[in-house]
Hints:
By secondary structure, this protein is an alpha/beta fold. Helix content is 38%, strand content 23%.
Amino acid sequence: xxxxxxxxxxxxxxxxxxxxxxxxxxxxxxxxxxxxxxxxxxxxxxxxxxxxxxxxxxxxxxxxxxxxxxxxxxxxxxxxxxxxxxxxxxxxxxxxxxxxxxxxxxxxxxxxxxxxxxxxxxxxxxxxxxxxxxxxxxxxxxxxxxxxxxxxxxxxxxxxxxxxxxxxxxxxxxxxxxxxxxxxxxxxxxxxxxxxxxxxxxxxxxxxxxxxxxxxxxxxxxxxxxxxxxxxxxxxxxxxxxxxxxxxxxxxxxxxxxxxxxxxxxxxxxxxxxxxxxxxxxxxxxxxxxxxxxxxxxxxxxxxxxxxxxxxxxxxxxxxxxxxxxxxxxxxxxxxxxxxxxxxxxxxxxxxxxxxxxxxxxxxxxxxxxxxxxxxxxxxxxxxxxxxxxxxxxxxxxxxxxxxxxxxxxxxxxxxxxxxxxxxxxxxxxxxxxxxxxxxxxxxxxxxxxxxxxxxxxxxxxxxxxxxxxxxxxxxxxxxxxxx
Length: 484
């Protein structure tokens, strides 16, 4: 078993206590261990970040950009090693892990390029002989809390923009998947990131929560995870001037209209529902089908689902990986059982993989005859489970999509351009797809949800700068104009 160190103040450090990292393909296996930091170590990380910010914010944007570019290069050079560790600690297939690793490098490259540009706008001024502009400045020390489902790409999408803009960070990776985040930190460190600009806190969240959230030097918190935890953080910040960027839950729907290419829609829905075993915030978990094509679409969908190969992520033949932990597996199975008790019809799946009793496997599951009052229709499952519902027409389909407390992603499959645009206008969610998956949003595309799916601060693209920078307006009076 490998023993890893964590990054604090530019040094790779350990403690006397450890957390074992398990392989969800076989939880009997601990493939690595990381330091279990204490509250005093968290305070020390904020000390380092505070000191480093004073220097980093004044560092040339071109120098900051070069460090990010060099880190991206190192990640690409190490892609096989990193992807193997992503698979080992998270469970996703090697192809998914490799894609995640390369996308993390893309985030660094994108924000390196964006960091070379000026952040601001030249404005007209009503006063004569004045020139006014806005400029964006870093906000300070930001706490980054990332989840276990995308253990490398989520830190990349959060850290790359805030570092490019000149902020410092304290980064808390998920306890189940800290190794991937340490790879990201290692690449930045090896690329020359100054000491203390990035500090990684590995440890048990329950023991560190107060030290992580209550430090007075925090200027912003960016969090991806459950609504329960996100709302707890929000309440904790209620009387403090601390920005909160939350990417929270989702209950994403795909609509199949009667004029859709049904075979293409079935393939896209299965890719969006069962990639990463459904453990994506944008995964399709509800499918709304116009009644005239419901039976035909269901047959095509089931054929695609039953062609999936369940197995460990390290096996090249695997197309459906294990879930990330025994707790997540058991939670998903409980959700399926509840749906059946409430009257849903089990088309396929619905059980653990008894051939692999020590792995976190759930067979790909499709539930039909789902009604709006069922928990499986309303609550996030975060696993390989798909709920089907038939509706009479386009209007009913849009109503079904919007029948949710969440509003992250939705898709429509249709050959009618008018219906495509109507759906884009009427779907109450932050990401809308037409004839493609609800998943797969690239680094330059603003990302985030409506309603309970997140806060007003978007991630990705240049929209993220609204969170990680503040706007200053500058007016310059340059005197009387020379006269000839």
